[in-house]
Amino acid sequence: MATDATQAIIAKTIADSDVVLFMKGTKQFPQCGFSATAVKILEHLGVPFKDVNVLDDMAVREGIKTFSNWPTIPQLYVKGEFVGGCDIMKEMYQAGELHDLICQKGIPHAHHHG
């Protein structure tokens, strides 16, 4: 069961960075295929993001699922809003919607989709 303290840490982490990816491993060394895919998508878009390794902290690993009401990791947050997991990111990326979202939120990024 996630504690209020954990939820507060998660909320602060999300508030402190425009783009946050809760993942297994780090952006340099993803520990699962889904997390690796999520990192690749963000890197393709050239979006700077904060990576949070849930394997470092069991409280965060469980807490993020409660926080977002989403059962799996990775989880992407943009400007404090939960976007989705790997599948949603892939679909949105392929449709150009993820790039649109990044633009709408005014997040600086390196290059444009397609």
Description:
The N and C termini lie far apart (about 45 Å). The protein is about 50% helix and about 15% strand. Strand 3 and strand 4 (about 80-85) form a beta hairpin. It is α+β, with helices and mostly antiparallel strands and about 110 residues long. It has a single domain, classed as Glutaredoxin, CATH 3.40.30. The mean pLDDT is about 95. It has a four-stranded mixed β-sheet, with helices on both faces. Helix 1 packs across helix 3 (about 60-70) and helix 2 runs parallel beside helix 4 (about 85-95).
Helix and strand arrangement:
Blueprint: H1 4-16, E1 19-23, H2 33-45, E2 50-53, H3 58-68, E3 75-78, E4 81-84, H4 86-95, H5 97-104
Parallel strand pairs: 1-2
Antiparallel strand pairs: 1-3, 3-4
